[in-house]
């Protein structure tokens, strides 16, 4: 099935409800093995990338990642384009719950146009690679004034088989409360949707803002690759 049809056929009511309740949604088996393997096989094809980041040089963790160039590989372009319109209404609900006037456009094209007007012109989808001892420090992927509050990550290797450890960690910070960590173990081909910056959470007196950060725990053996889709572009 072409990727747009696959994305359209997911249970978006469940995904929406999980995003609203928990700030993340784990969707099993979105990419097939061949799609994961093609992405990892292209890791060394330097013409696909605009920039390589050695994470320890910036104290971002231990590992490496590469930002794709425009035009993005077809699979990534199609994922970015077909998932965005499903998430824009959720994001707009969040803005409304938080009493913000900001609204996100219905299409990725319009979001990117808005990014471009704010000098955010560079593509943000990326591929990451960690080996034994590697990890990704807790962070948020904000690259300028314009940011969309949700993003995706696809796991490209099989936990328990290709690597051990390397859990995906979400940290939620509520005002005047202690932080909560959520530890997720997506499998190869799974799509994890999560909060980039903040989301509304319902309390006794209405909605309040909770900040989210994400990261990856230590890879204790093997190699773990992942592909991230961020919707806004970077300055
Ligand atoms: O490797 C991961 O699972 C996390 C990658 C990440 O930080 C991202 O996609 O923004
Ligand atoms: Fe990230």
TrEMBL record:
Biological classification of the source: Bacteria, Pseudomonadati, Bacteroidota, Sphingobacteriia, Sphingobacteriales
Domain of life per record: Bacteria
Family: Belongs to the iron/ascorbate-dependent oxidoreductase family.
Organism (species): Mucilaginibacter lappiensis
Residue span(s) of domain Fe2OG dioxygenase: 117-234
Protein name: Fe2OG dioxygenase domain-containing protein
InterPro entries: DUF2086 (IPR018655), Oxoglu/Fe-dep_dioxygenase_dom (IPR005123)
Record key words, sorted: Iron, Metal-binding, Oxidoreductase
């Amino acid at each position: 099935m072409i990727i747009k049809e696959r994305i359209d056929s997911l249970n978006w009511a469940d995904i929406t409800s999980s995003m609203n309740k928990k700030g993340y949604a784990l969707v099993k088996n979105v990419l097939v093995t061949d799609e994961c393997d093609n992405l990892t096989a292209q890791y060394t094809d330097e013409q696909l990338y605009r920039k390589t980041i050695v994470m320890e040089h910036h104290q971002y963790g231990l590992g490496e990642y590469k930002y794709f160039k425009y035009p993005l590989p077809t699979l990534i372009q199609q994922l970015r384009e077909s998932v965005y319109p499903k998430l824009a209404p959720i994001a707009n609900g969040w803005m409304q719950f938080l009493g913000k006037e900001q609204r996100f456009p219905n299409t990725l094209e319009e979001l990117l146009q808005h990014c471009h007007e704010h000098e955010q012109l560079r593509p943000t989808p990326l591929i990451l690679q960690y080996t034994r001892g590697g990890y990704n420090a807790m962070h948020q992927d904000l690259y300028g004034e314009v940011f969309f509050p949700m993003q995706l990550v696809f796991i490209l290797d099989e936990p328990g088989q290709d690597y051990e450890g390397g859990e995906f960690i979400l940290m939620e910070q509520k005002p005047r409360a202690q932080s909560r960590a959520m530890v997720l173990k997506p499998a190869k081909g799974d799509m994890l949707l999560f909060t980039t910056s903040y989301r509304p959470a319902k309390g006794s007196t209405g909605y309040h803002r909770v900040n989210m950060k994400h990261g990856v725990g230590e890879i204790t053996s093997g190699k773990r690759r992942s592909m991230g889709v961020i919707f806004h572009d970077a300055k």
